[in-house]
Amino acid sequence: IYTIDYELNGGIQSDLNPNTYTIVTPDILLAAPTKEHYTFIGWVNIQNEYVDDIPLGSTGSMYLRAVYEKTTYTISFDSNIDVDIDDQMYTYDDVIHIQIMPNIPGYTFTGIYYSDALEDTFSLETMPGSDLNLYVYYEINAYIVTFKDDDGTVLSTQTVDYLNDAVTPSEPSKTGYSFSGWDTSFEAITSDIIVTATYIINTYTVTFKDEDGTILSTQTVDYLNDAVMPSEPSKTGYTFSGWDSSIESITSDITVTATYTINTYTVTFKDEDGTVLSTQTVNYLNDAVMPSEPSK
User: Fold this and answer.
1) Phi then psi for 185, rounded to 5 degrees?
2) Residues 6 or more apart from 108 whose CB is under 8 A from it?
3) Of 8, 59, 159, 166, which has the maximum CB count within 10 A?
4) Strand partners of residue 167
5) C-alpha–C-alpha distance, residues 97 and 15, integer Å
6) What whole-number distance in Å separates Cα of residue 205 and Cα of residue 227?
7) Whole-angstrom Cα distance, residue 13 to residue 126?
8) C-alpha to C-alpha distances, 134 to 74, 76, 103, nearest whole angstrom
9) What distances in angstroms separate CA 70 from CA 90, 94, 98, 133, one per listed residue?
10) SS (H, E, C) 265-295
11) Could you tell me the pTM of the whole model?
12) Which residues lie across from 28 on neighbouring strands?
């Protein structure tokens, strides 16, 4: 009878492995021992040769030493966003060096947790004897969209998540101008931005009319600008005296009408010898008043 001396190196022997054998013992297939967090590699003899079995007909006592290697475990990652994070492999009790998480545009990495409940931050320093599935959380970035009037006055501010759109604020107003829009798009926001109101100056129609309603000319004039004085109109028997409204600093559509002063004429009555008998001032197309008859 020959003895088999096993060195288990902290492992647990299999019940299938005998402690003795004889020359007539049938082939012995050596079973693997178990060792927590280690993987059995094989048995080696005193000559440091791997031995898988003891064939029929073998003789002599044997020394067999169990050889192991640390079991490799996997750290895998899930996340709240669509991001590819490579698995990491560690053997049992190795120091864990978590890789730097990918930089994702529009998001800020905030931590690694044991689950999507985000209750406990991952804190292990060495690899346990099991695979780990960790949860990587990214917080979406928020940006400030500031709406300003064209004079720099802040109309409103909004906090907008990455790639979201700001909400169009109420249109501002400016005396003498019409709001024409915003100078910058505020869709799919990716940074803090300032959006400024733009305006188009209002234009007004200044209509010049003669006193009988005839249109003499029209002009399109920008807000607070002056209309250009047209040529003076004329009217038989009258002298043009001006326009009935100011045409400076225009703020609305206006009609400006020509005004006239009636012409006056002097009627001189003389005697036949040239003596002036009387004079009268008479409006255009009016009649002079017959004076007293002279005598001679």
Assistant:
1) -70, 140
2) 138, 139, 141
3) 166
4) none
5) 39
6) 9
7) 28
8) 11, 6, 18
9) 9, 9, 20, 20
10) EEEEEECCCCCEEEEEEEECCCCCCCCCCCC
11) 0.69
12) 54
Q: How far is it, in rounded angstroms, from Cα 30 to Cα 51?
A: 8
SS3 230: coil
Residue 123, classed as helix, strand or coil, is coil
Adjacent-strand bridge partners of 261? 239
First to last CA, the chain: 193
Structure tokens at 204: 């007004």
Rounded to whole angstroms, how far apart are CA atoms 172 and 159? Answer: 20
Tokens of 270: 């003389």
CA-to-CA distance for 218 and 160, rounded, in angstroms? 50
pLDDT at 226: 98
Residues 6+ apart with CB under 8 A from 131: 73, 74, 75, 76
What lies within 8 Å, CB to CB, of 236 at 6+ separation is: none
Which of 269, 259, 262 minimizes the C-alpha distance to 284? 262
Strands (E), 202-237: 203-209, 215-222
Residue reference for tokens 């005396």: 175
Spans of the chain below 50 pLDDT? none
Return the closest-CA partner of residue 6 out of 44, 41, 47, 58: 44
Q: Note the pLDDT of residue 98.
A: 93
> Taking CA 288 as the corner, what is the angle to CA 238 and CA 281, rounded to the nearest 5 degrees?
55
DSSP 131-187: -EEEEEEEEEPEEEEEEE-TTS-EEEEEEEETTPPPPPPPPP-BTTEEEEEESS--S
- Per-residue tokens: 296: 């001679």
What local confidence, expressed as pLDDT, does residue 296 receive?
87
Q: Which residues contact 206 (CB under 8 A, 6 or more apart)?
A: 218, 219, 220, 221, 227, 247, 250, 253, 254, 256
